[in-house]
Structures are given as C-alpha cells and as structure tokens.
Design a protein that fits this description.
Blueprint: H1 4-15, H2 25-37, E1 41-44, H3 48-51, E2 58-62, E3 72-77, E4 89-92, E5 95-98, H4 106-124, E6 132-137, H5 145-148, E7 159-165, E8 172-176, E9 178-187, H6 203-213, E10 217-220, E11 223-232, E12 242-251, H7 254-275, E13 278-287, E14 290-291, H8 297-308, E15 315-317, H9 323-329, E16 334-338, E17 350-352, H10 353-372
Parallel strand pairs: 3-6, 3-7, 7-16, 8-15
Antiparallel strand pairs: 1-2, 2-6, 4-5, 5-17, 8-14, 8-16, 9-12, 9-13, 10-11, 11-12
Helix pairs in contact: 1-4, 4-10, 6-7, 8-10
The protein binds zinc ion.
Length: about 375
C-alpha cells in the first residue's frame, strides 16, 4: 500500500531543504500545501513569537471518516540539529546517507516523511479512521521550544505518537528523563600572574576543584550528569577572574535529579568558599519526565499495530527528552516510536528506505487500530 518511491522522493526532497532551528519556514511552506491538497486543515500557531524563529508549529487536522473513533496525533519536528546547505546524498543498497561532510536530516525528516505518506495512503484508500492530527513542530533541537509554545487550544487529539528516535521500527519509548541545565558563573579576582599572583583568585582553579569532586557521567541507571562547556581566561599572565560553565543533569526519577543538582551546587559553593570566590548558578528546567506502561492505551495501540505488521515490538527507556515530554506534561499521553534514523547528530547519519516504508506502514496500522479501539 505504501508507495516506496513516492515516500523516498518526499524524504529526499525534505532533506534537501536546509532547516536549522528557527529557520523552518522554507519547508513548512512546501509541506502545508501538500497536506491541504490531501484534505487536511492546516493552522500555523504563533510559537515563533516565543522561539524567535521564522515560523510557528504546523498543526494539520484530518477529519474523522468514522464516528466515535479515538482522535490521535502523530508528531515530528521540522528543524535539524545543524544546517546542511550543501547536502550531498549517497544511496547504496537502499541505505541513504551523506558524503560524510554534513548531517542528513533523517532526524526528524525520517519521522515526518513516513507520517505524510501514511496520511496519503489513508486518504487514497479511504481507510476508516478517527480524527488524525499532525503536530509538526519547530525548534525541537534547541530545547523543545516549538512544543513548549504550541497553541494547546489547537490540539484535540486525546493521545499521540512522536516519530523521533532510532531503530528498530516497532520499538516504543515509554519513559524519558527530566532535564535541568545549570548556567554557572564563577567570579574570582584578577591580578598580574607574575608580579602579584597572591592578590588574585583564579576562577579556573575554583572550577577545577569543584569538577574534581563532582559526580559526573552515569550516576545510576536513571540518572546522568555532564559538564559540557567551560569558557574563561584571556592571557597566561592574568589570574583568571571569571569562568562560565554549562552543565546538565537528567534523571527519570525526580528525587534523584534534585539530589544530583543539589550535589553539583554544593560542590561549586564549597570550592568557591575555599578560594574566596563567588558562584552564581541559574538552573533551567528543560522538560519533565513521563512514564507510561504497557497498559496505557497509547502504548497498547502502538504495540498492537506493530504486531499486526510482524514488527518486533519492545519497550525502551530514553536517555533524552523529546516533544513527547512536553505533550505528556500537557496531560496528553504520548509515546515515542522507533524510526529508521541512525547515528543522529553526526555526519554519519543514515536511514534505510526499508525503515522509511516500515514507519509509514506502522502509522497507517496505528490509525486503523485506534479507529477500532473506540
Ligand atoms: Zn529529533
């Protein structure tokens, strides 16, 4: 039923449009008329007022052709982790990748193209379905910004499926962590490093001591922490007066996250105190954890649909957030579906055409199962 060539063509067309975060309009302008031609009502919300981007989220709605069926949504994001204006696509034995000089954009066009092909198949074949919404978001890669600012009043679906994680197709992500980021400023005191170093307080020494005592990496099965950026210093002959540091902590357990963040703060304050420096920490709460089970209808529908296609289905815990964190926090049960995207956020990113097709088949199957589970 899925048109393999049409789907592959759409995917490649989408990858060839350069859409880093905040610059998605060029692709939204291409996709919206295609969805409207299929009979979907399209609205762009005003999320870009808050994201600073050139376009809001695209919310497209296909009315039900069967009364009483459960309304559902499928979601993916327009933006890619970095720009790829000079994309060169290489296709070998059905595997689509780049020449190694840029990302491909399968994250998340490898989720979006199958959704659109599936909607085409559903409308072409007049497959019975409830209301289907597509929540196609912007600026996901820079902190789920589009989803955070989506116009909730436009969402009527009662549950959702986000196509935005790696293979195998058939896998259902049922939980993801909460994430906090820490913006840290250590303030010491400048001094000439050769003439009178005793008058200075080195912010670099402070952060070094703090990090040495900080539990980082994998803290436990549910919790991780990382110091990702350190910036500071101007010259070897100046005792460094200021260092800016960015760190993060994630956990699927709220208490463990709070404990880890507190530990990081304590370590920083302790080290600062020892040197007579000051420390300022801004904690940004990026997104909240969620936890579904096999008994939740949204998971059950995804797995039943996968089994109907003989896809191996399993549950997976995610180590990172996605738009599903935001939709779950809004009270809409949402799981994440495994797609074909591999090696994402690297220049070795690739996706197999077979997986694009499987994803589209899975979306059609989910729409069918949802329609029958009313
Ligand atoms: Zn993604």
């Amino acid at each position: 039923m899925i048109n393999r060539d049409r789907l592959t063509g759409l995917f490649l067309d989408m990858c060839r449009v350069n859409t880093p975060a905040r610059k998605e309009k060029v692709l939204v302008d291409i996709i919206q008329p295609q969805l409207e031609a299929l009979g979907l009502t399209c609205v762009r919300d005003k999320a870009n007022v808050n994201t600073g981007g050139d376009c809001g989220n695209l919310i497209a709605t296909l009315p039900a052709n069967m009364p009483g069926a459960t309304p559902i949504f499928f979601s993916s994001h327009f933006d890619t982790v970095e720009p790829n204006p000079n994309l060169i696509v290489v296709i070998e034995d059905g595997l689509i990748r780049t020449d190694g000089t840029s990302i491909l954009g399968a994250d998340d066009k490898g989720g979006m193209a199958p959704i659109i092909e599936a909607v085409r198949v559903i409308t072409e074949n007049d497959i019975p379905h409830g209301e289907i919404q597509l929540l196609l978001t912007v600026s996901e890669e820079i902190g789920l910004l589009g989803a955070h600012h989506i116009d909730r009043s436009l969402i009527s679906a009662g549950m959702g499926f986000v196509l935005d994680t790696g293979p195998p197709v058939g896998t259902v992500v049922f939980t993801a962590p909460t994430q906090d980021t820490l913006d840290i400023t250590i303030t010491g005191r400048p001094a000439h490093a050769g003439f009178e170093p005793e008058k200075g307080i080195s912010a670099i020494q402070v952060i070094a001591r703090a990090i040495e005592r900080m539990k980082l990496g994998r803290i436990d099965a549910e919790t991780t922490a990382n110091v990702g950026i350190i910036q500071g210093g101007q010259a070897t002959n100046i005792v460094c007066p200021e260092v800016k540091v960015r760190a993060e902590a994630r956990s699927r357990d709220g208490m463990k996250l709070r404990n880890q963040v507190q530990h990081m703060m304590d370590t920083l304050h302790e080290a600062a105190g020892e040197f007579g420096a000051t420390v300022d920490v801004k904690i940004n709460h990026m997104y909240d954890t969620y936890r579904l089970t096999e008994n939740d209808e949204v998971v059950r529908i995804a797995q039943t649909a996968a089994r109907s296609l003989n896809l191996e289905t399993g549950l997976r815990e995610a180590g990172g957030g996605s738009d599903a964190n935001v939709f779950n926090a809004m009270g809409i049960p949402t799981c994440v579906l495994g797609t074909g995207m591999r090696n994402i956020h690297t220049h070795q990113e690739c996706i197999h055409i077979d997986d694009l097709v499987r994803s589209a088949e899975w979306v059609v199957a989910i729409a069918k199962v949802a329609a029958n589970s009313a």
